[in-house]
Automatic annotation (TrEMBL):
Lineage: Eukaryota, Sar, Stramenopiles, Ochrophyta, Bacillariophyta
UniProt KW keywords: Chloroplast, Plastid, Ribonucleoprotein, Ribosomal protein, RNA-binding, rRNA-binding
Record's protein name: Large ribosomal subunit protein uL4c
Function of the protein: Probably binds the 23S rRNA.
Pfam families referenced in this protein's UniProt entry, alphabetically: Ribosomal_L4 (PF00573)
Classification via Gene3D superfamilies: 3.40.1370.10
Source species of the chain: Skeletonema marinoi
Similarity field: Belongs to the universal ribosomal protein uL4 family.
Compartments where located: Plastid, Chloroplast
Annotated spans, Disordered: 49-85
Gene Ontology MF terms: rRNA binding; structural constituent of ribosome
Length: 215
């Protein structure tokens, strides 16, 4: 059974001080545990990233092997009909991988429920930073690092930065930071949330998450 939980955050200004603006999430989570839904959604996300293009050749697809290597009887050796048998070097592969597409179906309501449950579980790791998209107006990593220092953000931990729109200066400023993942609110997923130790949201991203996942 799903129950509603409300979490509230104060926005931080450009100096890292708490402002008067407050933002809240009304999340629907499972009363018992939604971990099995989170697991299924992460599995679905990982399977969708697989290319599935690996392929091996069977004995009928390997070039050559049309002639019988030696006569059936009289040689003292085992019978052989082709030198492309899987038992021979250079032969085909038995039960080898073939191109395939694996899809794990998960309903939209289940995906949203898994995402909201994980947001609630990570509620203590979430910070709302006001106007982050406009604070970084030049593509310099140092500018982003200075902002992180103002907010006491540890760049040695995995950071998920969720914005409404990925601007070019913001993408270039975070590109060289290996622990920072920049993602738009419309592409938010449980795998990125699960890996992150710190989650940074902008006010516009908060509104987008409410519209897309919490309605």
């Amino acid at each position: 059974m799903a129950v509603q939980k409300i979490i509230e955050y104060n926005s931080l200004d450009s100096n890292g001080q708490i402002s008067s603006d407050k933002y809240n999430f009304t999340l629907n989570i499972l009363e018992d545990s939604g971990n099995y839904l989170i697991h299924r959604d992460i599995l679905r996300h990982q399977l969708s990233q697989k290319q599935g293009t690996v392929s091996t050749k069977t004995r009928s697809e390997v070039r050559g092997g049309g002639k019988k290597p030696w006569q059936q009887k009289g040689t003292g050796r085992a019978r052989a009909g082709s030198n492309r048998s899987p038992l021979w070097r250079g032969g085909g592969v038995i039960f080898g991988p073939k191109p395939r597409t694996i899809n794990l179906k998960l309903n939209k309501k289940e995906r949203n429920l898994a995402l909201q449950t994980l947001l609630y579980n990570k509620r203590n790791n979430i910070s709302v930073i006001g106007e982050l998209e406009t604070l970084i107006n030049e593509p310099k990593t140092k500018v982003f690092c200075d902002i992180c220092n103002n907010y006491n953000i540890n760049l040695d931990q995995k950071i998920l930065l969720v914005v409404s729109t990925k601007t070019t200066p913001l993408k270039l400023a975070t590109k060289n930071l290996k622990n920072v993942e920049l993602i738009s609110a419309s592409h938010l997923n449980t795998l990125s949330l699960l890996k992150a130790k710190q989650i940074l949201l902008t006010p516009l991203a908060v509104n987008n998450i409410k519209e897309i996942y919490c309605d």
